[in-house]
Design a protein that fits this description.
Length: about 200
């Protein structure tokens, strides 16, 4: 029970030790399990690593500069209608057609703000003159009714045109986008109108 091991029993351990000692060291120039990158890829990776800012201030500064340049491009696109840099809500052929459809015709809603100012002035003077106050209230009611009727007409015609021209394109929110544009005065609309009044879009 307490006898020492024989030479045969010790042999396996000696054999394992011998195998480990005879193992060849790894060749440092052996393949790494992946292809060596091309020179252009390696240069791109080095350039990218060099362009990554090391401190937080530099990163924030670069972010601000990138945001500023993006906003400048977006403002320029809103002025000239360049599709590449427009905001997401204005991009796409559907939205472009809606803008052209609205800009090519008169809409009563675009005169809402000037008329609202006139009615407000009349109502202020109406405190002293009862007749002016009644006129301002009638004008206000008439403007709202006209805008609602005109907007319903635009909604019907625009929906028909969109279904004919873009049967397979997503049109969600396009009509509301057009009606909101009618509420803006033509010279203040962004993106700037690209068609003249009376011109077919």
């Amino acid at each position: 029970m307490f006898r020492s091991r024989s030479k045969d029993e010790k042999a396996p351990t000696d054999k394992v030790t011998a195998d480990l000692s005879t193992k060849q060291p790894r060749d440092p120039e052996a393949p790494k399990g992946r292809p060596t990158p091309k020179r252009s890829e390696a240069q791109t990776q080095r350039r990218r690593a060099a362009s990554v800012p090391t401190d937080r201030k530099e990163a924030a500064k670069r972010q601000r500069e990138a945001r500023r340049s993006d906003l400048a491009r977006q403002r320029e696109a809103l002025a000239n209608g360049d599709e590449r840099y427009l905001p997401a809500r204005d991009k796409g052929p559907v939205r472009r057609f809606v803008r052209d459809f609205v800009d090519s015709r008169f809409a009563i809603a675009e005169f809402f703000l000037p008329m609202a100012v006139v009615i407000l002035v009349l109502s202020l003077f109406g405190n002293a003159n009862r007749g002016l106050q009644n006129i301002s209230l009638l004008l206000w009611l008439g403007v709202i009714i006209l805008i609602v009727i005109d907007s319903i007409g635009i909604w019907i015609r625009l929906r028909k045109q969109l279904n004919e021209r873009f049967p397979n394109e997503p049109k969600r929110g396009a009509i509301a986008y057009g009606l909101m544009r009618t509420l803006q005065m033509r010279r203040l609309r962004l993106p700037k109108p690209q068609v003249k009044r009376g011109e077919r879009p």
